[in-house]
Model the fold of this input.
Amino acid sequence: MSFAEVIDPQFGTFFMGNAPVKQLATGFDWVEGPVWFGDAGCLLFSDIPNNRIMRWTPSEGVSIYREPSNYSNGHTRDLQGRLISCEHGTRQVTRTEHDGSVTVIADEFEGKRLNSPNDVVVKSDGSIWFSDPHYGIMTNYEGFKSDQELPCNVYCVNPDTGQIEAKVTDMACPNGLAFSPDENTLYVADTGTMFDENAERCIKAYSVSDQSGVLKDGKAFHTINPGCADGIRVDTDGNVWSSAADGVHCISPDGNLLGKILVPELVSNICFGGRAKHELYITATTSVYRVILNRAGVQRP
Ligand code: MG
Done:
């Protein structure tokens, strides 16, 4: 496997022999937010600067799913399989209903506009957790340059009541987020303020066993190098898979780097997909890649 850098020998067993890292599509400007729709057999992902969501299937290749997309970034699905989207342009989180209509899930906190929701995950109780850094309002490249009204937090929304809570309030710029398989731990990647090279850029692990109020005392879990963790996902064994400047890094539940999948472009995000959630889809700058694993992701449906 010329594409894999094995640091812990077990990482070598995570692959399917001769399965390559395959480029599925290219020609975009900055791809992000991959989400697998198993029932539709397709991958959706954002091409943020071009203000569109793309769709890829093995037989049909790439087409436009939604344009304009309100500069959408991260996506996931809820327990009913509906698309949940973070939108920079409207500074909101939305849900696309099965009939195609769009419902706003969150757009403010304590009377102030959200910054630019970045990435999102749904817990098994249906609650929607999303990060809200300010990247999408800093310039006109990935949204609309405008004033920041709130600190960069992670929020939890009850989609039935609309109640929104700030859950992580001690990061510079929370970005990717994922729950451990038992959902007792929330991993959050801090990508730091864009112009501060000394900013702390660490994946932190927060205990969510007590869900009330703000999550405190997040433990430093792992610092990605080179680059920083943007999108992160967890497999069924609790390993954390993270984007990095040189590819995708795999980190054990105790925080040790097991190995890397080397990708020729800067990786932004990843998701598990395919029939058995054993395919890792990788959004990386101008292209989307896939590698088939001997591991499965925690991802629904
Ligand atoms: Mg992100």
Remarks:
- The domain at 4-292 is CATH 2.120.10.30 (Neuraminidase).
